[in-house]
Amino acid sequence: MPSKVFSAALLGLDAQIVEVEVDASYGLRHFEIVGLPDKAVEESQERVGAAIESSGFQSPHHQPVRVLVSLAPADLKKEGSIYDLPIALGYLLAAEKIKFDPSNKIFLGELALDGRLRPIKGVLSFTTSCKERGFKEIVLPKENAAEAGLIKGIKAIGVENLKETIDYLEGKREILPHETNVEDFLETSPNYSVDLGYIKGQESSKRALEIAAAGGHNLLMVGPPGAGKTLLAKAIPSVLPLLSFEESLEVTKIYSIAGLLPKEKPLIGIRPFRSPHHTSSEVALIGGGNPPRPGEITLAHRGVLFLDEFPEFHRDVLESLRQPIEEGQITVLRSKHSMTFPAHFMLISSSNPCPCGNYGNPEKKCSCTNSQIQMYRRKLSGPLMDRIDLFINVPQLKYEKLVAIDEENCSLKVRKRVEMARNIQRERYAESHNKLCARLTNSEMEIPQIKKYCQIDLKSQDILRKFVNSGKLSARGYHRVLKVARTIADLEGSENILYDHLSEALMYRVREE
Ligand SMILES: Nc1ncnc2c1ncn2[C@@H]1O[C@H](COP(=O)(O)OP(=O)(O)OP(=O)(O)O)[C@@H](O)[C@H]1O
Ligand SMILES: [Mg+2]
């Protein structure tokens, strides 16, 4: 009798159910896996054979038996080693060596030759999707049980090896479902490496940083070497509120799929801060490859993507950011299926004014040629720059500032203000929260929300008209200024956007070339 057990395949952050059917009949020794397996799945038969033998059964490779494993749906590519466990169990069922009811259970796990189970990636996505599809139990390697246990409503059974799994399934051994207590893993007082209070002077930069953090806006800092640009960027995580539980799950799913989840911590609570080097490739930044992996923009989801030394990045790499910045997600196309990874991040970037860094500095002479400066600055213009909301100059500090103490802007105080503004935004967009990717900040507003929440008075309309008609503000720029103005109003707790809020937003957006 052919057997059927269930497993799953990752599709972006989602998973699809895979049926593992196994037929074992008397005949010439043969083992075949069909249903678009990749090399790792094909090799599964060797691991499965050895693991079955180590667990006290006879390996199909040493008997006159024809084994056919079919992985359905047949047109979905099956990748990796997660099908080892369902294939082994499917074979033992089909060959009538063991007996259990496989309905409503999902099996995932790579087998070692001695029958041990090795941990897998993407467990949170698997568990969520399987629960949504009505499965009652997920059987997987013990190391992954804490992560699966985050989801209530489906039993997470962590097993150490194949023998233990069989004993459990046949009712000879009890294994309690793993229940992870979320409270144990939620961050309460994390240690940040840089506090905004350490950074002297630069009050206007800090103000812009606070606005960007409050509304999730994009920011570019330009200034001479050593002015504190990198330091300011590194302080951003310390002024951002911690992730809510729902956001934590979103971020954890991404890190789990990328294999970046720390072993002892199944839930990520701090907003991501990604700082890829300027030699990074397009695939590393945007995601893709085979099998598709989330890129830096997805790893920065709900957090910060920091591009230091912005003009040093390859032009194509920068251009590829245009669409995901606008859409908050990236779709990777494969032959038959497309995968969408979320990418709601704040883009924080920094640049020197010219290659030597002294352009515009009254005290130091710039040693660059005109063409060098032009080449360098070309990257700081055009469509990508149109997506930046706040442009700020970070000047060299004078001695008096460098030794003064700035108590007003320590991270704790700024974070409190940012949290307050973000709470206002969360409530404002509450109706979007049951959607797949909830809208949480002003930067994520689209035209209908801008129309609804960004009403401005006549005086404000006049000034915006002037800037748009003189070509200093594009249509996109116009909408972005309104969003930033909304955030500035929220920081003040003001329901209406006032003229002052709008003119401050405009000041950050319009820069002199
Ligand atoms: N405002 C500041 N307050 C305190 N220390 C500062 C400040 N600005 C710079 N520093 C000191 O200078 C060091 C260099 O700063 P940082 O790396 O942020 O400069 P940068 O603007 O990124 O320069 P570059 O353009 O060369 O990358 C910091 O590690 C810090 O010690
Ligand atoms: Mg720097």
What would your notes on this structure say?
With 513 residues, this protein is of the alpha/beta class. The protein is built from 22 helices and 18 strands. The strands form 6 sheets. It has a 5-stranded parallel β-sheet with strand order 11-14-17-10-18. It has a 4-stranded mixed β-sheet with strand order 1-2-4-3. Helix 21 packs across helix 22. The longest helix is centred in the last third of the chain and has 18 residues, at 411-428. The chain is elongated, with a radius of gyration of 27 Å. The model has no long low-confidence stretch (mean pLDDT 90). Adenosine-5'-triphosphate (ATP) is lined by residues 199-202, 223, 225-231, 352, 397.
Q: In order across it, which strands form the biggest sheet?
A: 11-14-17-10-18
Overall 3D shape: elongated
**How can the largest sheet be summarized?**
5 strands, parallel
Low-confidence stretches: none
Q: Which bin fits the share of residues in helices? A: 25-40%
* Measured distance between first and last alpha carbons: 76 Å
Bound molecules: adenosine-5'-triphosphate, magnesium ion
In a nutshell, what does this entry contain?
With 513 residues, the chain is of the alpha/beta class. It contains 22 helices and 18 strands. The protein has helices at residues 39-42, 44-54, 84-94, 123-132, 145-148, 162-169, 182-185, 203-215, 229-234, 236-239, 245-257, 282-286, 296-299, 315-319, 322-327, 370-378, 399-403, 411-428, 447-453, 458-469, 475-491, 499-509, and strands at 3-11, 14-26, 30-34, 65-72, 105-107, 110-111, 117-118, 137-141, 155-159, 219-222, 273-274, 287-288, 293-294, 304-307, 329-333, 338-342, 346-351, 390-393.
